[in-house]
């Protein structure tokens, strides 16, 4: 079993490499790919040094499973060639998720969809959508869903290494000026590039680029939720917010249920959902570096058939690398 890790030098790629070993994935060898910039670099895997190859110039034959996290542009051009060379491609980018010939899979929710893959490509959902999926599937199965209203709290690592660097640089550049913020004075942070407003000591209610009056992240949350849950006309309305957290996405969700549930009933359904772990106080720090999505703060209003909860999960693990490897495990 040869596994190719595309985007191996990135955040998701490095978590992939760690998880392949941690979960004892039955790979006999790995090949690592990045851009021309990274070609020739040595990375450790299973006590050996592996040379990073340039994906643009590589021969993909011999790869059985390709774990891709190299961005949508690279994936659009390279994934078909990798699949044509014989690999099953599991792709983390947004490039293929809404393609009707590409299954969008969360193993705990729709594992069987992975078996029908006419293009040889399986897509991994957006990291924010992913974190809410076990919970929404549990409520769908328990009583049915009529509508989903969500507000996200997305970590900067969800925007790649550049997002992490921007928060770190802004915190550093604010330096000693930070305490002034407590007096209501402006904190001088900069430079601002990756996000539309300073992210240090701030909250930015626009994650992802604007598509229309919504951002691309808000579109992904709606469209991907519908596809994974198999509910094509589910009403989904979401506000995607970037917060100064390094790792761990959170989502505050209110759903309109098809039948009323009491708070204990909803709590039980959410806590027992595969992929979830109940927490009295789910936070991104609790979730960072861990596999489950932590769900809690459950409240229902039986008269109006509403249920609210808060869920936090590691965007680099379950939101990306872990889910991709769980799909690969299901294939194996
Ligand atoms: N971060 C998250 O929470 C998250 C969650 C779910 C999905 N994703 C998706 O996963 C992908 C990677 O995210 P990330 O956070 O790991 O980004 P990242 O840290 O910025 O890393 C990007 C990786 O992609 C490689 N790459 C870029 N262009 C390439 C090309 N043309 N050919 C081959 N490799 C190329 C880079 O190689 P070099 O080092 O050589 O530049 C690097 O290894 C994105 O599609 C993202 O949307 C991310």
How helix-rich are the residues, as a percent range?
A: 25-40%
Rg = 20 Å
CATH architecture of the largest domain: 2-Layer Sandwich
Low-pLDDT stretches are none
**Average of pLDDT:** 95
What's the N-to-C terminus distance?
Answer: 9 Å
Q: Note the total helix count.
A: 9
Largest sheet: 7 strands, mixed
Q: Give the CA-based shape.
A: globular
Report the bound ligands by name, code or SMILES.
NADP nicotinamide-adenine-dinucleotide phosphate
Number of domain modules: 2
How would you spell out the order of helices and strands? EHEEEEHEHEHEHHEEHEHEEH
What does this structure look like?
The protein is an alpha/beta fold. The chain folds into two domains: 2-124 and 321-331, Rossmann fold; 128-155 and 203-314, Dihydrodipicolinate Reductase, domain 2. It has helices spanning 11-22, 72-84, 107-110, 127-142, 160-174, 216-229, 263-271, 284-287, 317-331, and strands spanning 2-6, 29-34, 42-45, 48-54, 65-68, 88-91, 121-123, 145-154, 235-242, 249-257, 276-278, 293-301, 306-313. The strands form two sheets. It has a seven-stranded mixed sheet, sandwiched between helices. Helix 3 links the parallel strand 6 (88-91) and strand 7. Helix 4 (127-142) packs across helix 7 (263-271). The protein is globular and about 60 Å long. The structure holds NADP nicotinamide-adenine-dinucleotide phosphate. NADP nicotinamide-adenine-dinucleotide phosphate (NAP) binds next to helix 1, strand 2, helix 2, helix 5 and helix 9.
What's the layout of helices and strands?
Layout: E1 2-6, H1 11-22, E2 29-34, E3 42-45, E4 48-54, E5 65-68, H2 72-84, E6 88-91, H3 107-110, E7 121-123, H4 127-142, E8 145-154, H5 160-174, H6 216-229, E9 235-242, E10 249-257, H7 263-271, E11 276-278, H8 284-287, E12 293-301, E13 306-313, H9 317-331
Parallel strand pairs: 1-2, 1-5, 2-4, 5-6, 6-7, 8-9, 11-12
Antiparallel strand pairs: 3-4, 8-10, 10-13, 12-13
This protein binds NADP nicotinamide-adenine-dinucleotide phosphate (NAP).
């Amino acid at each position: 079993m040869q596994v190719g890790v595309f985007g191996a030098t990135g955040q998701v790629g490095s978590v992939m490499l760690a998880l392949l070993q941690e979960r004892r994935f039955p790979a006999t060898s790995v090949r690592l790919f990045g851009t021309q910039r990274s070609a020739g670099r040595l990375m450790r895997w299973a006590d050996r040094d592996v040379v990073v190859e340039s994906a643009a110039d590589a021969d993909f034959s011999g790869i059985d499973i390709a774990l891709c996290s190299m961005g949508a542009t690279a994936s659009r051009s390279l994934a078909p060639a990798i699949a044509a060379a014989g690999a099953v491609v599991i792709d983390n980018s947004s490039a293929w998720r809404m393609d009707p010939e590409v299954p969008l899979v969360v193993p705990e929710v729709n594992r069987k969809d992975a078996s029908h893959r006419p293009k040889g490509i399986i897509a991994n959902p957006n990291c924010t959508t992913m974190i809410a999926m076990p919970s929404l599937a549990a409520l769908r199965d328990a009583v049915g869903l009529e509508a989903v209203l969500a507000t996200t709290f997305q970590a900067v690592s969800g925007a790649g290494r550049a997002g992490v660097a921007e928060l770190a640089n802004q915190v550093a550049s604010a330096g000693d000026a930070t305490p002034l913020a407590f007096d209501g004075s402006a904190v001088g942070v900069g430079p601002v590039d990756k996000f539309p407003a300073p992210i240090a000591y701030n909250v930015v209610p626009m994650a992802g680029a604007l598509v229309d009056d919504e951002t691309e992240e808000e579109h992904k949350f709606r469209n991907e939720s519908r596809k994974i849950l198999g509910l094509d006309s589910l009403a989904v309305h979401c506000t995607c917010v970037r917060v100064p957290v390094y790792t761990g996405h959170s989502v505050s969700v209110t759903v309109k249920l098809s039948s009323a549930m009491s708070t204990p009933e909803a709590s039980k359904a959410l806590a027992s959902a595969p992929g979830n772990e109940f927490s009295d106080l789910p936070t991104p720090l609790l979730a960072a570096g861990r596999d489950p999505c932590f769900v809690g703060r459950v409240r229902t209003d039986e008269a109006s058939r509403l249920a609210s909860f808060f869920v936090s999960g590691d965007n680099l693990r379950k939101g990306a690398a872990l889910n991709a490897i769980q799909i690969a495990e299901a294939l194996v």
